[in-house]
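Lecture notes, unit on binding sites. The following record was shown on slide 14. It pairs a sequence with adenosine monophosphate.
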Amino acid sequence: MQTVTTIAGVRACVRAWRQAGERIAFVPTMGNLHAGHISLMELARQGHDRFIASIFVNPMQFGPNEDFAHYPRTPARDAQMLQDAGCDVMFMPDVAEMYGEGATAPTRIDVPELTTTLCGEFRPGHFEGVATVVAKLFNIVLPDTAVFGEKDFQQLAVIRRMVADLCFPVTVVGAPTVREADGLAMSSRNQYLTAEERRIAPGIHRALLAATAAIRSGAADVAAIERSGAASLAAHGMQVDYFAVRRRVDLTHPGAGDRELVVLAAARIGKARLIDNLQVDRP
Ligand code: AMP
């Protein structure tokens, strides 16, 4: 595996692979890799000759009071994990390489509507930062396929919309959420939890399971399901940002005839803001 820190370096690798007719898969990450990330890499390798992973903690997607400075950075361990996963290139640019001259007022990508609801409401500008950095990374790596986790369901929806609207020649693949044995979705931010907070954190998954079970058994009162989910998180001592039942296709509120749903939750436990979701089909 090569470690590359410059845009020109990635382009040189990609050019050579393209000339050899090879297919390229790409997995963008913020590093501090765990088994969830590695599952994306395994999916990325299927049907492709090469795969690139990027490790970049993107300042544009963090709010002023968020955890950009403290976000866990473990480059040596990440490199070993990527090597073991069969990665060809680890692209690890610094902020100057990615934003350069545009650092103070960079061009931004705004995906409307999808980005102002749910996490967008609580993290203004977050998805603009995500869409912008992913567009830049796509233009640098020029992958055939890019893999994103369903764990960040709204992010995946934003990327799919951006790719469709801006005609990026990239196939976006969603990968299932990898969980700890007790159901907690794996996340770099789980490290912020104290032992006591870690004990209550799987309550998010349990509340999502209860909500999807209710929907599957025919419960029709979406507002009641949302209230009961939020109450169950609050009862664990979490500060609930939202517990919401939405249409999978566009994250809008479901009507009576909508069958393909997703239940999404975001809650703060101590210093960590955790998100999770489960997809469910109405009977
Ligand atoms: P991050 O490093 O948190 O930006 O995540 C990089 C990619 O890994 C994103 O597409 C995430 O959705 C995905 N990801 C993060 N956690 C998980 C998980 N537990 N299971 C599957 N994918 C995940």
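Take-home: The beta strands are 2-4, 24-29, 50-55, 89-91, 145-149, 171-175, 239-247, 260-269, 272-281.
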